[in-house]
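A quick word before the example. In earlier lectures we treated sequence and structure as two separate objects. From today on, think of them as two lines of the same record. Here is Putative oxidoreductase written that way.
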Amino acid sequence: MTTETITNTHASLYQESEDFSFPTLPPFPADIPTAPLLRLSLSSLRSSSEESGRFFTASKELGFFYLDLRNDPLGEELLSQSSRFFDLAPKFYKLGREELSKYDYKNVGSYMGYKGFGSAVVDEKGNLDRNEFYNIPKDDFFGISEKPFTHPDILYQNTDLIKSYINNSHALITLLLNHLNTHLQLPEGTLQSLHRLNEPSGDQIRIIKSPPQPPSDQHTALGKHTDFGSLTLLFNQLGGLQILPPPSLTPAGKEPEWTYVKPLRGHCIINLGDAMTKFTGGLLRSNIHRVVSPPGEQAEETRYSVVYFSRPEDEVVLKRLEGGVIPNGQDDGEAMNSKEWIKLQALRLRKVGVEKSEEERRRLWEETGRGS
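And the structure line, produced from the sequence above:
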């Protein structure tokens, strides 16, 4: 896990000499070790049982993989739309923190809307995060919410983009769930039936901004965690994402080390979340990850990310499914429905009310169990 490894799907599609950098940004340093995520092809996944098998292997072993979206109609649309979100992000954050704070809904028990810079604990030392983000709820923009939140006008001006991007992201999620359902040997449509587009859920688009950190004062931008939902689609152009590989993928005699995931142009990064681990009794992996300052010259740039989080429908209980190749066993504690679980996980490290002391922040971090 300490050297870059690229696993080819088809030699004609994947040549190591290909340039996957982003021309308008500083390159990812060539001497920085990167995580050997499998690189899969969406176009191949539609027709190749071998590619489908590699996807299932990645879902069990690491829970992270690259997906090449080129040469596929749906993939090309997602690439185009994600590019539009990267163009939108600087304009959106020009609204300023004072204006965006009007759309922070944590005090009414919601993780939707705005999260300000330095408002969540990220490590055992009690440090606070170094980013801000905005969660755009699927349900508000699809007319599903009983009491939709108010959002900045710039988002309503881009309703068509938001709805189309959600539709396409959900289409990709459905395709991936279909493959997993087949490999798990579950009754047809089982996983898909837990993630219907027009039912209430915590699905959302997240636009993240991480400004450059002073070289003498660099901290974790987003603390170590696993994602809370089912599948995550991530687009970023600068480094910063790191994964901690499981012991099973770490060379004998060595401890797992935090390793950068290098962004690749034309690809998204996909990872599985806790819901898939719970549904499959631990067979599928939700791997721990964090976000730090980008390496090398990239650290001088503002880092934007565009994320789509797919979550089970609100009323779905997160527990092991029966049947297929899912191992028998007991669930890990009292099962919650998806809405309760996501809310608990998303808000537990956020500051509420009066700012906490450093000792209180440390205690808050310990209570989450993330330090273990």
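Notice the following. The two ends are 21 Å apart (CA to CA). We will return to this example when we discuss secondary structure assignment.
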